Amino acid sequence: MRKRSSSAKAFTVFNYSFLSVLGICFVLPYVLILVMSFTSTQSYYHKGYSLFPESLTLEGYKMIFGKGSEIYTAFFNTVVITVLGTVIGLFCTVLAAYALSRKRLAGRKFFNGLIVFAMLFSGGLIPSFLLIAALNMLNTYWSIVVPGALTPWYCILVRTYFTNIPDSLEESARMDGANDFLIMLKIYLPLALPVVATVSLYFIVGFWNQWSASVLYFDGMHRNMMPIAVILREYIQYNTQGSGSGGTATLPVSMKMATVVVATLPIVCIYPFLQKFFINGLMVGSVKG
Amino acid sequence: MNIKKNKLKKLGITLKNNVWLYLMLLPGMAVLLLFTYGPMVGYYLAFVDYKARLGIFGSPFVGFLWFKALFDGGFIWEMVLNTLKISLLKLVLCFCAPIVFALLINEVKNKLFKSTIQCVSYLPNFISWIIVSGMILILLDTDEGLINRFIVLCGGEKVSWYSEPGKWYGILTISHLWKNMGWSSIMFLAAVTAVDSELYEAAELDGANRLKQIWHITLPGIMPTITIVFILSVGKIFTDDFEQIYGLVGENDILGETTNVISTWVYKLANSGAASSYALGTAASLVQSLVSLLLIVVANLTTKKLGQDGIM
Fold first, then answer.
1. Does residue B135 share a domain with residue B38?
2. What is the pTM of this model?
3. A125 and chain B in contact, CB less than 8 A
């Protein structure tokens, strides 16, 4: 009896300490970024990247919030892309999902098939690029926000949710002469708010973090339209490759890291909601794909 | 004749009754057809001798010429091999770790500690690889990076991480693990909590300790979940993680030996505007998409055979 309880104790101690170390590994990188964003340039040249800098400074934040800083425009661009993308995405996804959840829709199987196949097979990147170019969408926000407006996975999530709401609600509203759009808007949408919240957050995080499409679809002449992630990428890659657009060489490290902080902060702020609703989405998805 | 007419009439009535539904379906389907299925039609580019002024469908047809060039020239093999090596490393390490993590978390009785660990482990899932590249710079910078300073402190030699390709198998795997472990553990954790608690009580009475309980009750209990996740991961083995590789490595050609994969190569072609290589790049994309499709379909059929729901 005694032996068992002591081995259980040892396991508990091991478990808590191991998970604590793991937890620190998860948190430390953010702390490092935060500390470096306040680290003065002298301290950086003297001590390099460090958790305990010699002297602190606000110069990084002063630079990115200073007059004529490109971070303002970049941040604004990211906000515009995120808001536009989420609104358009929700519009397309929720409407289509509702229509697909109605069993009387002729051709329902065909449309569902189109959505599922789009998850399994993707068109080529170069044809996509040529398509965007042919539509005159290069160097516009639309090239970023429209192509992903109907993301199959999100559409399936919302559709499944609508399917699980009883049909009897629809019938009683139909008696009153309401059309399908009004029925969805007034009866089904309020009931589906949890899944709509989940999908909104998926869109927000996706558009906030996107950068590869922007690098591809915006040329150097339209730097003032690029999101913050693209600008940040240039700042960081200067160090890792020793090449890049001229000015970045002299950027103080505090400014680079302050940019990382500014780009990450909004995500961290909405994180409590993210955690709750994302997990909901994951669970709904895993129960019924 | 009459039956046909009736059928048409019936179809007309359904369409008329559901006109609002079709209107609601329209925006989403238009976007999907244009921007997802459009580029699939655009794969025709891989079969022509592309001339920008003629367009994809006006350029002369050349059959499988580009595919031959791709395989005869041999340079697709390096990219395929890199993709497979990185995927396999991730599969071995990043598949087991979340299971162990979920099991350990499940053993924690202190609620505050448990939710704190879960909270910090999920966060990396929500940040972009660009942010991670900033973190990695702090750690791996040759002169000022934390890891090199630590190595020097211990009397070792500086490692120039950004010019040694071999090191990047590890860097890509570990950064992937850091970013995805917490999030991937959620599925397993849900499965673990669903295991019947009476089984544990019975085992307790029989004198089984915690490790034995995990081995004989928890693991068999979550085996179905493990099997599905494993098969689906195997199905994704031919898909490379563009955002990770291009986000962390970018245009760094020194590391290409390890980090050149099809998606980054094609992206560079598209981004540089090298129209003469567009067809070759598209051929490579098509090969990758087709093989990926095949693997995912096989993986799904396998999970269905085992009596589980796949993603389809």
1. no
2. 0.89
3. yes
